[in-house]
Amino acid sequence: MGKVEKGRGRRSDCRDVDSSTRRDFLMITSVLGLDLAVGGPVLAEPSDERPKEGDVLVAIEAERQTPLEPKDIPAGGPPVLAWPMDLAANVVRSGSRLNKVLLLRLDPSTAICPHAGCEVSVWVAEQKLFECSCHYSHYDPREGAAVIDGPAPRALAALPLKVADGKLVVAKPFTARVGIVPT
């Protein structure tokens, strides 16, 4: 055996092995945790997936998950909050708040504010505008949810819809990234 100094020896070697093993374990755990946090090898739940073409919309506050029809959305507001739903799989895509949709019926979408990621859920009836209650950005739904004022850098993302068999159905994915854009 090699030279053993006073107060050291095999015990020191064991500590090195223990700390090395612990460090390796923590590093592996960190890497696995990072994979989970960024959506690595773990598959997303169907309820977390973004709306897909063909999904119907169901009212968030309804007792039953009945697909919405145009008549269910009052003309001129207030907006109706809805989740997309895959009818074939019977899955409501309510696992992510980014899937909340604001439906507003105009004469002739909860949206997520692109400023700080807050939910846009206030309807200013007298002006017919959406308002973010966090920093008071205002959006005009008659102009593609364009920013009227406030710190938001861009319009709200829209979810193109169509009517099929009398039901509101997702026609295409969101027109832009939902929520804040990373810098």
What does this molecule look like?
This protein is an alpha+beta fold and 183 residues long. It has two domains: 43 residues; 125 residues, Rieske [2Fe-2S] iron-sulphur domain (Rieske Iron-sulfur Protein). 15% of the residues lie in helices and 23% in strands. It contains one helix and eleven strands. A five-stranded antiparallel β-sheet has the order 5-6-7-8-9, with no helix packed on it. Strands 1, 2, 3 and 4 form a four-stranded antiparallel β-sheet that branches. A two-stranded antiparallel ribbon has the order 10-11. Strand 7 and strand 8 form a beta hairpin.
State the order of secondary-structure elements, H for helix, E for strand: HEEEEEEEEEEE
Rg estimate, integer Å: 25 Å
Can you identify the CATH class of the largest domain?
A: Mainly Beta
Q: Note the overall shape.
A: globular
| Global mean pLDDT | 77
Architecture per CATH nomenclature, i.e. the level-2 architecture of the largest domain? 3-layer Sandwich
The domain count comes to 2
